């Protein structure tokens, strides 16, 4: 590593961050599939239909912008959108980890398609 120049080190850093982000995203998809089934079964949503996607907005903390799990939007198979609090479980930690690699900004949104596993940041 000591023989690499700054440009080469930057390429390695970018590759590592992308791999880390993909890892957190995959873990988040699994956690959300499980958690959304739980909240629908517990009748904490506006629909009994399964959730097919989850979206998160951002909120600002002292150390930057993060994904807000307190007002997650679940899109159900029937088209209904439910706003639920997904804080205080593994989803919170994974969103924080993902924010550390994806670096969201004010107004960004994160959407997870629970059918395909696609994670999109806009």
What labels describe this entry?
122 residues; alpha+beta; 2 helices; elongated
What does the model show?
It is a single chain. Helix 1 (6-41) packs antiparallel against helix 2. It contains two helices and five strands; from the N terminus they run αβββαββ. It has helices at residues 6-41, 90-102; strands at residues 51-61, 64-76, 81-84, 110-113, 119-121. Strand 1 and strand 2 (64-76) form a beta hairpin. It has a five-stranded antiparallel β-sheet with strand order 3-2-1-4-5. It is α+β, with helices and mostly antiparallel strands.
Secondary-structure element order, N to C: HEEEHEE
Q: Low-confidence runs (pLDDT<50, min 5 residues)?
A: none
Q: Terminal Cα separation, in Å?
A: 34 Å
Identify the overall geometry.
Answer: elongated
Count of helical regions: 2
How confident overall, as mean pLDDT? 93
Strand content: 25-35%
Q: Give a quick account of the main beta sheet: strands, pairing sense, barrel closure.
A: 5 strands, antiparallel
Q: What radius of gyration results from the CA coordinates?
A: 16 Å
- Give the spatial strand order of the biggest sheet: 3-2-1-4-5
Provide the helix percentage.
40-55%
Strands, total number? 5
Q: Tell me the structural class.
A: alpha+beta
